[in-house]
Amino acid sequence: MSGTREAKLSLAHKVPPPTGAYRWVYLWEWPIRIMHWLAVAGILTLVVTGLYIGRPYFMTGGEASSHFLMGRVRFAHFTAAAVLVMTGIVRGYWLFMGNRYERLRALFPLRRRDWVNLVRMVKFYLMIRPERAPHYLGHNPLQQLSYTALYAITGVMVLSGFALYGQSDPGGFIYSATNWIGPLLGGMPNVRFVHHALTWAFLIFVPIHVYLAIRADHLERTGVISSIVSGGRFVPVDHHFVDE
Amino acid sequence: MSLPSLEAWAAEETLGQRLQSKGVSRREFLEFCGKLGIVLGLGSAAGPRLAQALQALKRPSVIWIQLQECTGCVESVLRSAEPTIGNLLLEMVSLDYSHTLMAAAGHHAEAALQQAMKANQGKYILVVTGSVPLADGGIYTTIGGRTAKAVLEEAAEGAAAIVAVGACAHWGSVQAARPNPTGAVGVAEVIKDKPVINVTGCPPIGDVVTATLAHFLTFGALPATDSDGRPLFAYGKRIHDQCPRRAHFDAGQYVEVFDDENARKGWCLYHVGCKGPATFSPCPIFQWNGGTSWPIGAGHPCIGCTERNFWDTMTPFYDRLPDVGGFGVERTVDILGAALAIGAAAGVTAHAVATGIHQVRERRKLPVLPPDAGKE
Amino acid sequence: MATTRVVVDPITRIEGHLRIEAQTEGGRITNAWAHSTQFRGIELVLQGRDPRDAWAFTQRICGVCTVVHAVASCRAVEDALGITVPPNANLIRNLVHGMQFIQDHVIHFYHLHALDWVDVVSALSADPAGTARVARTISPWPNNSETYFRGVQDRLKTFVSGGQLGVFTNGYWGHPAYKLPPEVNLLAVAHYLEALDWQRDVIRLHTIFGGKNPHPNFLVGGMASAINLDGTATINAERLVDIQGMIRRARTFVEQVYWPDLQAIAGYYKEWAAIGGGVPHFLAVGEFPEGGVNDVDRLYFPRGIILDRDLTRVHPYDHKLVKEYITSSWYQYAAGDGVGLHPWEGETKPVYTGPKPPYQFLQGLDKYTWMKAPRYEGRPMQVGPLARMLVAYASGHEEVRAEVGAVLGKLGVGPAALFSTLGRTAARGIETVLLARQMERWLDQLIQRIKSGDTKTFDGSHWEPSTWPASAEGYGYLDAPRGALGHWVQIRDGKISRYQCVVPSTWNCSPRDGEGQLGPYEAALVDNHPLLKPDQPLEILRTIHSFDPCMSCGVH
Ligand code: HEM
Ligand code: HEM
Ligand code: NFV
Ligand code: SF4
Ligand code: SF4
Ligand code: F3S
Ligand SMILES: [Mg+2]
Predict the structure, then answer these.
(1) Does C230 contact chain B (CB < 8 Å)?
(2) What is the ipTM of this complex?
(3) pTM score, whole prediction
């Protein structure tokens, strides 16, 4: 059994698990993978800089003219914001250009069967009859739901962020494109509040997301984590998947 | 506007003639017009154009009505500090109705209003301070036995332009703050068939009111506004982007509590709740009371008094974020968020442990992998 | 004799919306009602808010006495949370409030009250040389020259001949109750204009400490304007010198223009020293703490109560004996409209029962105003400058005794003359003179403290809500330009759960109570009160203006 244990720990790249008949399925094409990691970098930067903007927890001393701490932090925030928006655009484009796992239909729980399976997935994670869990190659319904929610939240962050950003240049393009948001939420302070509060959504999502990725990798030993690096995973030849 | 004054001119006399008879030189007048151009955001090059328009001006009538309010806006205009020649221009409007200053009362006051409206039908400037309480048939403010709404509607009828002065006239201000017991609204919510310009603030700087009037007098039209009806020449920029303490903001230098070392160094008030980053107002540029100072200049954070709904959206005043819904969420949102994030981390750890136990149990029952695993 | 019903609405040259109704018979007022016709509900708006924000909300109760609600609110919250402001902050608040008094009183005299006594049109026929002569006998004010008065008169002539009288349109010019000689009328008109410029200058003291006027900023726990003599964005030497100048100019104007004018005009209207006395009880909560708010023995204007015009006794004041009644007001109490409630139990539930507008008369209705009726141990009370000066006089305040004695001597009347329309106007002048002097002392004290190294302006020990008790109650007193003011706050779990204000104009403009006792405006109007021409209610304006009404304050 020692071989098995090794396999369990492996982060199985393109090396097939040392057992059974497996096939390699290519799931995430390179644009998706690159965008994922760029978005990860962007979001981590945005969270860290955003929390500083929200509460400057350390200060500089001396002459104001010799420091630019908040200026730099805000610059980093806006640069990361630009990166995030870019990844969003590419991802949006790929909803139509990508493979069946990457397309619009795979991303949102649109079909009836997805909703049925959603319940089973929840039970799976609650370890109630886990063997009845549906098997997906791409996103399972729970992932669909959480990723969809995350995309929506990111969308709100981007919109509220740009609405805030636009304030410094009234009449400018960003201002004009976003100045419906303030009145919609009952004033710019509320926009700021939403932007601030939703930051926590990322801090809640990330540990769960990373845990589930590692867990799946660990249990299924089929390279789920590596899929977002290498693009694909190994699956038993004879296994049928819901979304295949 | 310095109100009232004795600077009337004869019925058909133009401002040009009037100035001449008062011994104001052409050069002085042009200089003034140049300054006015700068204030109005037109640049000093607009001076000659302004001069031409102004010279032809005949004595305009201003009717000023006060609805549901605190009189702070009238007081603010009484404090407006014009350069002398500006005074000259603005003193010359005929203030034909003003609750605060007029000699007559009761029926005689009402009669003065009717006379002024009739004599200047279609030509007078209507200045409004105060809100219009609409709840319960408008009984929360009556004047001469009539509701504020009726008084406003009648006065608006024959006005050439309507200048809503102050946050009350703009959107209701303090009496319109949650729960708005009297259903107070701004002028533009009652008068829909005429443009209303919102010279807002609680109160606005008096000079902004007079400059807006000057614009109307010179061009016969109200100045350009933003999407909330506020004149752009005054409310076109955020306080935060014009603030003398901005260098400290960028540097990362903040007052942490009032009167700390940093406050005594004049650092940025962001951390004690300054709403400058969300407030469009000319305070740092125009300043208050003849350029003496302004709120942030005197060490207090801006409370955002030129923004619609600021009593609800900018409060608590000493917190950076609003108290959304009045439930105290704002202060707990970070605690709540942090708790959830920690909860999520703890949750996944617990789940990982549970998974481990589950796995061990399952493995005892049936092999996870085929018996020939690892032998391919 | 036939009774005439009189309605004066709007009462102009006041703050807010006041309607006076009266009945007259043979040139005398026989009955009177004061109707306040604006309600905003600020006490309701305050519920559920952060108590540290309350000052800004309550400040917007009034833009005329723009300082007083903010300070009363800070004091109420500080009382509830156990905060003591540093001495510097107390001094700064005294300076700011002191300048409020001075500016408010002078504006009131020239711009709100003077036209009741001064006939602008009569000034046209004045001999400017005569005006200059009169002026020189009463004051060394340098502007008081013949040329100066002639210039003003010329402007006035062009103005009147231009046909459009602006704010002077439809005044009661030529009314037989106007008694000033043309020369004195011209003097007053000239100073009416000068006062407009003067107030704009001296009020900048507020701008330096509070960032603007109207509605300067305050802070629970002190003042936000930090002191640093070497700073550029703080209270520094340059700012202090500027303030010194304003205080000097304020004092000079008060001593050389306002006060001499007031006395000169009063000399022509001595009969008004027997008219409009009204309610015989007077309340002063005291103001200008010189040793901190809780040291009520060191208030520059002392605290106390005068009953039945008896100046031989000053009764102690206990805020717990204040109750508000709504028998005649458009509100409901849960326990029934007959009870009186102490403000800590106070309720504000508006229920309008008046006629549907437009309406003709309100007189005779059971409920007829938005003003509540505060009573002290069941008694209506007059508050304001007169109450303050009487309490100070009766308490043996030396400066007050000297000034009061001097005025009475000059006018040749006894102390009984104080209980009148003229008495209220004169008392306002007296306290302005005293304050204008006192301001210099407070500024000196502040400068001395700074010199000795104390620059503290804020006490933050109870700033954070985590340091507050779960439940707290506070009372903030303050004697405002128009009289005794109180804010009562209740704080539960860090938020305001109840907030009640009883304001000078609430006391003075209160309606009848359950016992049928008239409020001070009403009582004054039926106290030996003439009204020559019911369609020209000049005398009503005199008496009502002598209270310096503020309706936005009174109802809030
Ligand atoms: C995952 C995405 C993001 C996170 C977690 C995030 C987080 C934050 C946080 C916590 C703040 C401080 C809010 C406060 O308390 O006032 C902030 C401020 C801000 N963010 Fe973001 N943000 C994100 C995306 C963006 C984007 C896409 C933009 C677009 C330009 C943006 C623009 C801004 C701006 C303009 C501010 C205000 C900074 C200032 O004006 O000083 N943010 N952000
Ligand atoms: C800020 C942090 C992160 C965010 C916001 C994030 C977001 C996302 C999103 C939205 C997807 C769906 C991809 C798509 O279809 O477009 C995804 C997929 C994935 N992410 Fe992340 N991610 C983060 C960090 C990570 C990390 C650190 C890992 C690795 C340990 C990881 C592993 C994966 C994997 C394996 C998938 C594919 C899962 C599947 O569909 O089976 N992610 N992530
Ligand atoms: N009454 C009153 Fe005030 C004063 N003085 C308030 O406290 O005027 Ni607006
Ligand atoms: S806007 Fe503010 S200052 Fe002006 S009347 Fe209204 S409450 Fe008073
Ligand atoms: S004081 Fe206020 S407006 Fe000025 S820079 Fe700081 S946050 Fe911005
Ligand atoms: S509070 Fe108002 S006065 Fe100016 S600095 Fe802020 S806009
Ligand atoms: Mg009250």
Answers:
(1) no
(2) 0.93
(3) 0.93
